Structures are given as structure tokens and as C-alpha cells.
């Protein structure tokens, strides 16, 4: 199934701003909690793990947050790979 280059770029361009925040939250909170764990100080930083799992105060998205994160990341990877594949230079065959 071939998508026009313009449509692929539009999908990718619209998805990036939506996915930046959740992916940054996931990466930063996971990494910082791991640092706290290595320092033996997990009790004081349990709130990072809560954010990492999708529990944002009164809004609890723990059930769907990982799936939305994964779906968004897969769509970004797929659209980015398809854009890259269609725009990379083709090697010329020698006669």
C-alpha cells in the first residue's frame, strides 16, 4: 500500500507534537527513578514511578497510557521509516 509522500509527511508532522510530551515523560521519569533506585532512595521518588505509569494526579491513565504510548511511537516509527525509504537516493546500476 503506497501513500503519497505529502500524506506521509502530514501524518508524521501532526503526530510528533502529540507524542513528544508522553514520550519525554516516560523516558525522563523512568531514567530518574532508576537513578533513585541505584542510589537506594526509591521511597522518596515513588511519585516518579506513578508519573511513569500514567497516573497524573486526579487523571489516572495507567490502564491505557502504555498502549497509547506504544501505538504513537509505532506510528511515528512507521511513518518516519516510510518517508525515509521513499526519499533516500537510489543507486544507479552500471551498464
Features of the shown structure:
3 helices; mainly alpha; 68% helix; two-stranded antiparallel ribbon; elongated; 95 residues
Question: How would you characterize this protein structure?
Answer:
The chain is mainly alpha-helical. The chain is built from three helices and two strands. The protein has a two-stranded antiparallel ribbon with strand order 1-2. A hairpin with a 2-residue loop joins strand 1 and strand 2. Helix 1 packs antiparallel against helix 2 and helix 1 crosses helix 3. The relative contact order is 0.15.
Tell me the total number of β-strands.
Answer: 2
Fraction of residues in H or I helices? 55-70%
Strand order of the biggest β-sheet: 1-2
Q: Strand content of the residues, in percent? A: under 5%
Q: Average the pLDDT over all residues and give the rounded result.
A: 87
Instruction: Tell me the radius of gyration.
Output: 19 Å
Query: What structural class do you assign from the helix and strand content?
Result: mainly alpha
Shape: elongated
Straight-line N-to-C gap: 31 Å
The major beta sheet can be summarized as: 2 strands, antiparallel
Summarize the topology.
Layout: H1 5-38, H2 46-53, E1 55-56, E2 59-60, H3 65-87
Helix pairs in contact: 1-2, 1-3
Summed up:
With 95 residues, the chain is mainly alpha-helical. It has three helices and two strands; from the N terminus they run ααββα.
